[in-house]
């Protein structure tokens, strides 16, 4: 997808914001109350960011509020670690739920009472069919379902059985509570869905209090109702669940009835987004944890060096719609590039160093050259770069046999050193066995200090460099896409991990960067001039020894490789 987005501010409101505005104008709601409802069974990813930005964004725009609610109804897959990481990620994205932190498990008692009410209304029954039988009775898209033989139990019997289920008198899976709706409904979700199951598993918050757990669909609408949510925003796969959402609230005649609105989820090419698959990558060691910089998790993007502003901007750019679409990685990369272009100080770093000796520069001399920290922004100030007889330049900035339009170094060619002097290559040394260039001899023009020549002589190319004796040697990690296939999980019959890109991470040791970077704090972004944006890794760096992650290149290399 390579859409040219118009400037974000000029775009009409998306369809959800339109609804929220209309509801405010009509007086239906004075202010929106939304919620972001993650299940604590994994870390948040860029798709969740879309939902976070939408829910918190709408609340902020209307001085409403957005709740953070953990949808923790499945005790076997949920963990406290995930709760903490999700809170950290939402905060880092720049959003605040204030005192409105909730857990669906806080409502277990109330949900249980609503279930008893449904039973008394004749709208729910205990069913003894096995899971397989229930599936079999449910019918198909073309055939209606068949009533369970337990469907006509009386409310009294149902109540007694349900209380016994709660008291732990039955084994896991032996009985469930089902809503009594319509076995012939064209919508399979309405064919007496299960709303409670027995699960003798400890819950990360309620411990062993419960052996009966409510199902997601039943829990979600009631949690929304209890929190007086006005607009319950979810992804399109819940569209077919909306009748059930409404049925539960209508049947219980609740005073508050939030409106569920569905939008298209974010899909990105060359990655997987399902938490189950991300967990598999982590557990099988394909990546170094949830925060591996190649993962499109919020923690991975943060560690890689993405800024919260760039992720919010990305979410704004992709917009909210009703139609499923695929977003190219290039859109996310552009967002971070645009953001860092404004905020990241410029420095010099040589990734593949080639040694240069300036033959006519005095051996024991050293001088400091002033360099701007941001060429377009004077307020970023300047710094001093040490310059001496021996330098490192980028290996790719010299060619033994350069074409005419190669505006960098070749034998007899002159270039400008950024913030330095003009230099001309006079000879080079080469390893006879490997053919590799090992050293350049150059001369410099002392009249060109600061990068301009008094005689008006023009040089086309400007290259970056560092002083060999002053540079800091460090490692830099380059990243490429994690998968080689555009849709790695398209084919259900093959394991998506076969599409992993073995070259997704390249570690360059012996890079040479300017000495000012010795004490850079992990997490701070800089631009290595001509190379891209980099960030010292939080885990691999140690004091005085940064290890840099490349966040993104300066140009859209992605688009080039994806014609
Ligand atoms: P699971 O596969 O475990 O259901 P999930 O990705 O749906 O995972 P949830 O924790 O249920 O995870 O998601 C929390 C919220 O984020 C939900 O409202 C969900 O609709 C939304 N969400 C999840 N993935 C995306 C996505 N790719 N794009 C937009 N919203 C998403
Ligand atoms: Mg989900």
Summary keywords:
alpha/beta, Glutamyl-tRNA Synthetase, domain 3, binds adenosine-5'-triphosphate, binds magnesium ion, Rossmann fold, disordered C terminus, 24% strand, seven-stranded mixed sheet, 563 residues
Descriptive account of the structure:
The chain has 563 residues and is α/β, with parallel strands linked by helices. It folds into four domains: 15-104 and 218-333, HUPs (Rossmann fold, 3-Layer(aba) Sandwich), CATH 3.40.50; 108-215, Glutamyl-tRNA Synthetase, Domain 3 (Glutamyl-tRNA Synthetase, domain 3, Alpha-Beta Complex); 347-470, Beta Barrel (Ribosomal Protein L25, Chain P); 473-561, Ribosomal Protein L25, Chain P. The chain has helices at 15-25, 46-61, 80-92, 108-120, 131-137, 155-166, 216-226, 242-251, 275-283, 298-304, 308-318, 329-343, 557-561; strands at 33-36, 65-70, 101-103, 124-127, 176-179, 194-198, 212-214, 231-235, 259-263, 266-268, 325-327, 346-347, 349-350, 353-358, 366-372, 382-388, 390-394, 414-417, 422-430, 437-445, 462-463, 465-467, 472-479, 505-513, 525-528, 532-536, 547-552. The strands form seven sheets. A seven-stranded mixed beta sheet has the order 12-25-26-27-23-24-13, covered by helices on one side. The protein has a seven-stranded mixed beta sheet with strand order 21-18-19-20-14-17-22, with no helix packed on it. The longest helix is centred in the N-terminal third of the chain and has 16 residues, at 46-61.
């Amino acid at each position: 997808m390579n859409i040219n987005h118009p400037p974000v501010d000029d775009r009409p409101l998306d369809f959800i914001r339109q609804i929220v505005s209309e509801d405010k104008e009509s007086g239906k709601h004075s202010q929106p109350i939304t919620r972001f409802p993650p299940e604590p069974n994994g870390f948040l990813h860029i798709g969740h960011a879309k939902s976070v930005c939408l829910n918190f964004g709408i609340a902020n725009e209307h001085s409403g509020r957005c709740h953070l609610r953990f949808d923790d109804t499945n005790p076997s897959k949920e963990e406290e670690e995930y709760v903490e990481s999700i809170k950290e990620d939402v905060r880092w994205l720049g959003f605040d739920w204030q005192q409105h932190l909730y857990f669906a498990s806080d409502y277990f008692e109330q949900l249980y009472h609503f279930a008893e009410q449904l039973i008394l209304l004749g709208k729910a029954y205990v069913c003894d069919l096995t899971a397989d039988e229930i599936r079999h009775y449910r019918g198909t898209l073309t055939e209606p379902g068949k009533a369970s033989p337990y469907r006509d139990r009386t409310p009294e019997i149902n109540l007694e059985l349900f209380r016994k289920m709660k008291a732990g008198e039955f084994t896991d899976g032996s009985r469930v509570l089902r809503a009594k709706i319509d076995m012939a409904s064209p919508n399979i979700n309405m064919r007496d869905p299960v709303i409670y199951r027995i699960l003798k598993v400890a819950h990360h918050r309620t411990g062993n209090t419960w052996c009966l757990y409510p199902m997601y669909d039943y829990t979600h609408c009631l949690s929304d109702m209890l929190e007086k949510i006005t607009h319950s925003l979810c992804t399109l796969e819940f569209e077919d669940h909306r009748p059930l959402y409404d049925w539960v609230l209508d049947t219980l005649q609740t005073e508050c009835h939030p409106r569920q609105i569905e939008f298209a989820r974010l899909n990105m090419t060359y990655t997987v987004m399902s938490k189950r698959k991300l967990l598999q990558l982590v557990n099988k060691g394909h990546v170094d944890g949830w925060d591996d910089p190649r993962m499109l998790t919020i923690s991975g993007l943060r560690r890689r060096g993405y800024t919260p502003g760039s992720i919010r901007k990305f979410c704004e750019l992709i917009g909210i719609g009703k139609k499923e679409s695929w977003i190219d990685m290039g859109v996310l990369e552009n967002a971070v590039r645009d953001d860092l272009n404004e905020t990241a100080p410029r420095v010099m770093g040589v990734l593949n160093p080639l040694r240069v000796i300036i033959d006519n520069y005095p051996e024991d001399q050293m001088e400091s050259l002033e360099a701007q920290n941001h060429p377009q922004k004077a307020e970023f100030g300047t710094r001093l770069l040490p310059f001496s007889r021996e330098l490192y330049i980028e290996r790719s900035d010299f060619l033994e046999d350069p074409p005419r339009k190669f505006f960098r170094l070749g034998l007899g060619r002159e270039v400008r050193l950024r913030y330095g002097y003009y230099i001309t290559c006079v000879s080079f040394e080469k390893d006879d066995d490997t053919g590799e260039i090992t050293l350049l001899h150059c001369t410099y023009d002392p009249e060109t200090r600061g990068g301009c020549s008094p005689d008006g002589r023009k040089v086309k190319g400007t290259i970056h460099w560092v002083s060999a004796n002053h540079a800091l040697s460090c490692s830099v990690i380059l990243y490429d896409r994690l998968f080689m296939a555009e849709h790695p999980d398209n084919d259900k019959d093959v394991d998506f991990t076969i599409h992993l890109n073995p070259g997704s991470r390249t570690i360059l040791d012996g890079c040479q960067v300017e000495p000012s970077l010795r004490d850079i704090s992990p997490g701070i972004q800089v631009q290595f001039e001509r190379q891209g944006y980099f960030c010292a890794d939080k885990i691999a760096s140690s004091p005085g020894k940064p290890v840099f992650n490349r966040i993104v290149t300066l140009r859209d290399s992605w688009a080039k490789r994806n014609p």
